[in-house]
Amino acid sequence: MKSTNKFTDKAKVYAKYRPNYPIKYIDYLIAETGINEECIIADIGSGTGILSRQLLERGFTVIGVEPNDDMRTLAEQALNSDDRFISVKATAENTTIKDNSVDLITVAQAFHWFNMEQFRLECQRILKQDAKVALVWNSRDGTSDINKECANVCQKYCPNFNGFSGGMEETSIAFQQFFKDGKYYFKHFRNDLQFNLIGFLGRYLSASFSPKKTDKEYKPFIAALTEVFEKYSDNGQIVIPTSTKSYLGEV
Q1: Cα gap 138→109, rounded to integer Å
Q2: What is the pTM of this model?
Q3: Which pLDDT tens digit goes with each residue over 65-109?
Q4: Where in 160-227 does DSSP place strands (E)?
Q5: DSSP for 24-66?
Q6: How far apart are CA 40 and CA 162, in angstroms?
């Protein structure tokens, strides 16, 4: 399956159960890049518009670039009332954005789907001089018992599971290759997530690798995750240890 189609039929659950990014991260991004309300941000692989919305709330003009029709349509429904939001059907490797027109590129939960070298060249084309690229993930804390057990469940019942975020964050090699001279700023922010059972299951069902209702793995997947929830929940709530990981630099 092409990466642009992996979230088809999952857009609604994605929009409902995927978390925002911490306010401290947005503050950090603005401070480190020096952007202001006159600036244009290209949010590449913008999905259902989670990060785009948070940037719009700070007064920026945001170009949301998203190739998946289901995801992009939800973003448009949620954000098109803001005339500073520009929705574009395009890929990370061919954004159709004008040369040297963008003050910052953001990529939230999506960089691992891109052709890294082609995307790097596209960033160089559309960014203004000395402008930066910000890659960010809300990442499960891999040292926690809850997340270890959930990873085992995914490994068992999800044939397309290759680690969370496609295993991208398990090594720094990709970031060294992507950023100019291998230099970038890494920062992380605590962003623990709290769910009831429905939200907990929804968070996992929003993943590209999770089985759909028509797949034979679906029912045992749900049953196994429910067991994890019952083991670790307290008063019907579970806390998922999570960090927001930021990689910022020039390309």
Answers
A1: 7
A2: 0.91
A3: 999 999 999 999 999 999 999 999 999 999 999 999 999 999 999
A4: 185-190, 193-195
A5: HHHHHHHHHHT--TT-EEEEET-TTSHHHHHHHTTT-EEEEE-
A6: 34
**Residue whose tokens read 């949301």:** 64
Whole-number Cα distances in Å, 118 to 23, 65, 186, 193: 31, 15, 23, 34
Placement of tokens 């857009």 in the chain: 11
Mind listing the pLDDT tens digit for each residue in 143-156? 999 999 999 999 99
Number of Cβ within 10 Å of residue 2's Cβ equals 9
Q: Structure tokens of 44?
A: 């590449």
Instruction: Give the residue carrying structure tokens 């029709």.
Output: 69
What is the enclosing helix (H) or strand (E) of 245? strand 242-249
Amino acid at 216: K
Per the CB < 8 A criterion, the answer to whether 128 and 98 are in contact is no
Is residue 45 classed exposed, middle or buried when 0-12, 13-18 and 19+ CB atoms within 10 A define those classes?
A: buried
